[in-house]
Amino acid sequence: MTDFENPQGLENLPPPGDESPIAAVLDHLSRSEKRSNQMILIGAPAWVKKIIHLMHVARITEVRDWSRLMPTRNPDEVISLMQRPRVEE
Questions:
Q1: Tens digit of pLDDT for each residue in 39-83?
Q2: Structural domain boundaries enclosing 68
Q3: Residue 5 lies in a domain
Q4: Does 30 reside within a domain?
Q5: Is residue 3 part of a domain?
Q6: Which residues, including other chains, have CB under 8 Å from residue 23's CB and lie 6 or more apart?
Q7: pLDDT digits (tens, 9 = 90+) for 5-49
Q8: Model's pTM, two decimal places?
Q9: How many domains in the chain?
């Protein structure tokens, strides 16, 4: 498994720094002008990658739809976000 690139719309997330990744993601989502659906995974890097790939196999999401893995303040824990436009019914 490889690291994930930023999907469209998530390339403006700030690099890991003093602000927590969760706060950065929530701030980014609150500023988004487009309505979208999101999923957030938080956990051990291997688990997050596994779930992303399982959702790909199940045709729920594409691997490329997920943001890069960003470390949280907890050791051996990362966060990844999937965001895509809402389909209005």
A1: 999 999 999 999 999 999 999 999 998 999 999 989 999 999 998
A2: 21-85
A3: no
A4: yes
A5: no
A6: none
A7: 444 444 445 555 556 666 666 666 666 666 778 899 999 999 999
A8: 0.63
A9: 1
